[in-house]
Amino acid sequence: MRKITKSAIAATVVTSTVLLSGCGLFGGEEEVKQMDPPKNEAVDETVAKGDNSETEATEATDQEEATTETVKRDLYLIDNSGLVVPYTVDLPKTDAAARQVLEYLVAGGPLNEMLPDGFRAVIPQDTVVDVKLEDGTITADFSKEFGTYNPEDEAKILQAITWTLTQFDNVNNVVISVNGYKLDEMPVNSTPIPTDLSRADGINIDNSGVVDITNSRPVTLYFYVQNEDAEYYVPVTKRIENTGDDRVSAVVNALIDGPNMSSNLISEIHQDVKLLGAKVEDGNVTLDFNEAIFGSFNEKMISKHVINSLVLSLTEQPEVKSVAITVNGSEDVVTEDGKSLTEPVTRPANVNTGSF
């Protein structure tokens, strides 16, 4: 049987979950502001223009950088189960944002004092990083210390760097280099590096259950982990068979199938849930389910984990901006805390924003 948490347990750790905002459904005004997050500022603009010299902004003194103005960034870390997990932190605002997030991925670096229990940084200690952005492709350059990681971490490091850098709107692809030399494969275990490395290459890849990889396609799904200290959402790229379903239906049905049985990932979408219909209009998806979507709750009430998994997973599709839910065609549906789901729910600006 798949792992299904009880709402009473989930309620005790609600502060650790991602905050999804949809017309005030999940919290106060601060959360509602995340409904339509602003574009992230340009990343290392002077480097993008081909200027390899440091700018005054990137040469700022420690005193100048010690500003109270901060911005939320997603750092992809490795948890104690070996999963690559987004963790949102407040970082000092800087014009060199891409280089900054890489520096925070270095073990023993500035992230050290804010690392949540059970998590670790992904880039080997003492590694020096630099970046260069041109036409949507960012080159992440590392010093020789980059090649001192454990072989079993290699794919995770590649995924963490890629997903951390591509959080910026003007970064589409990533190139990895060491001391200025572009790598075609990772330096320790020779994992190939695609020439157009991007989020499309996946994260926490799960190939279980797929017989014919050539007749399948990847989708990124969000399940969650719960332990004694916290709960948090984890993206998983899973290959699903090409059945002819549209992408929205394919994602929902993959969520219904659930996570790998051997993992510690959890889903509250029961396998007896059925998607009765899916309609996409102007970026909004309306999903119609049977009553099994209510799970163990009272009639017309849907778990926050069900809503969050659906919204996070579906908004990985470029054409989806928000998600609305009906049951047997009825809009009379509420969240587990009694708030109406009559308005579409949008993706938050960041994932896993609570204290771990």
TrEMBL record:
Pfam families from the UniProt entry: Germane
Alphabetical list of InterPro entries matching this protein: GerMN
Region (Disordered): 31-68, 336-356
Record field: compositional bias (Basic and acidic residues): 31-52
Record-annotated GerMN domain positions: 98-187, 248-336
Chain coiled-coil ranges: none
Protein name: GerMN domain-containing protein
Record organism: Fredinandcohnia salidurans
